[in-house]
Amino acid sequence: MAPALQQENAPTSSAPPSRLDEKLHQILYKPEARAVLEQKAELEVLPEPPYPIHPDPQPMTKSEYQKLNAIRTWKTWGSPYFKSRWYKNDLRPIIPYLFTEWKCNLDCHYCWSYNNKVKGMTEDTAKRSIDWLHSIGSRVLALMGGEPLLRPKFIHKIVHYSAKKDIFVYLPTNGRLMKPEVIDRLGDAGIATVNLAVDSVKDRKSLPKALDPIRRTESLCRRRWIRFVPTLSIWLSGSITTATR
């Protein structure tokens, strides 16, 4: 081919010849060694939460609740977010996840987070994780699983310890283990939001996370001013409809 024709047909794009990130490629195939939590001579424990802290919760007006929620939202979401933007070179996660449990009381066919052979998180790991997250500016904590409420006393301790540090505690759960005493203790300790994950309204064998068996939890949550957010995912003709309240 003539040199003039070759030059005419030469690519004009400035894109690199290969768009593969070589460093990322190597990390994916040969992941770097993960940091191991240094063992201490004496394991730390979470303090035993007093109960009840608020024996007779008084109803709030809508404006009082909105004011409380606005202050809490700024302290736990707003301020940490803007600080993370200002200190952009520092690690400051906005929503850290604390996987307290891999076990679950249900076996949903689509869920990967189910392993009853794996032991749950220890108090030592939980306390040191919360302390570290607080030290780097995080003020939100999502308790993940499995089903976190398989160990309600452990979650009660985590909620109380975190709330004392002005941390917004968010609890996703299938709701089947939310007994009145459990809800009252978590609300008394200072939990902020309960997210009920459900797959259908009616109880079905193929979709065990149903709304009907756990409807009573809403009124119990409202008594303790816990934000109650049911998330409903229904399979309809291959599509998913998601509704939140």
How would you describe the overall organization of this protein?
It is a single chain. The protein has 245 residues and is an alpha/beta fold. The protein has a domain at 94-244: Aldolase class I (TIM Barrel, Alpha-Beta Barrel). The chain is 33% helix and 15% strand. It contains seven helices and six strands; from the N terminus they run H-H-H-E-H-E-H-E-H-E-H-E-E. The protein has helices spanning 3-8, 22-29, 62-86, 123-135, 152-164, 180-189, 217-223, and strands spanning 97-99, 140-144, 168-173, 193-198, 227-236, 239-244. Strands 1-2-3-4-5-6 form a six-stranded mixed sheet. Strand 2 (140-144), helix 5 (152-164) and strand 3 (168-173) form a beta-alpha-beta unit. Helix 4 packs parallel to helix 5 (152-164) and helix 6 (180-189) packs parallel to helix 7. It is globular and about 55 Å long.
Chart the SSEs and their pairings.
Elements: H1 3-8, H2 22-29, H3 62-86, E1 97-99, H4 123-135, E2 140-144, H5 152-164, E3 168-173, H6 180-189, E4 193-198, H7 217-223, E5 227-236, E6 239-244
Parallel strand pairs: 1-2, 2-3, 3-4, 4-5
Antiparallel strand pairs: 5-6
Helix pairs in contact: 4-5, 5-6, 6-7
